[in-house]
Design the sequence.
């Protein structure tokens, strides 16, 4: 029983603060890493097609991109190319790694169907400001680090 409790206390969890545009990774009660992030430029919301970031409790349901090269472009969670600094595009690309979120509350239960991810981006200059289309973006090297520390089933909290 004590061993089970210790394993629960040391399980990783992610907290995203929309107000501070920060993502923190915890090991139990201890913050082990913290990165600037970018949530939706359209604000907070739960409606399909709104491009808004949902709030509440989530879990990492799927992980995509393990061992992919930094800057790998994903479409429908499949690698389709490689992006590099200086490549011009107006698209909001999903790069490097994907942590696909599943909502655990009635208000955010459609999160998985909305394709809300934590992912790398081609718009690293705007990390730290609300600039995404609903997902939580990280710089690509930070995304690799987070991905490597985050198994499926990791709890995620997104708060104002």
Sequence:
């Amino acid at each position: 029983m004590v061993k089970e409790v210790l394993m629960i206390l040391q399980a990783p969890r992610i907290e995203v603060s929309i107000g501070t545009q920060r993502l923190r990774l915890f090991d139990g009660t201890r913050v082990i890493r913290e990165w600037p992030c970018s949530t939706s430029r359209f604000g907070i919301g739960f409606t399909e097609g709104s491009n808004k970031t949902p709030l509440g409790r989530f879990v990492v349901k799927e992980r995509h991109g393990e061992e992919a090269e930094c800057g790998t472009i994903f479409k429908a969670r499949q690698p389709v190319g490689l992006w590099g600094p200086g490549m011009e595009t107006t698209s909001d690309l999903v790069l490097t790694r994907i942590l696909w979120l599943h909502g655990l509350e009635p208000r955010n239960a459609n999160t998985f169907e909305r394709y809300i991810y934590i992912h790398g981006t081609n718009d690293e200059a705007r990390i730290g400001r609300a600039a995404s289309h609903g997902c939580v973006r990280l710089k690509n090297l930070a995304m690799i680090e987070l991905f490597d520390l985050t198994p499926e089933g990791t709890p995620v909290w997104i708060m104002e």
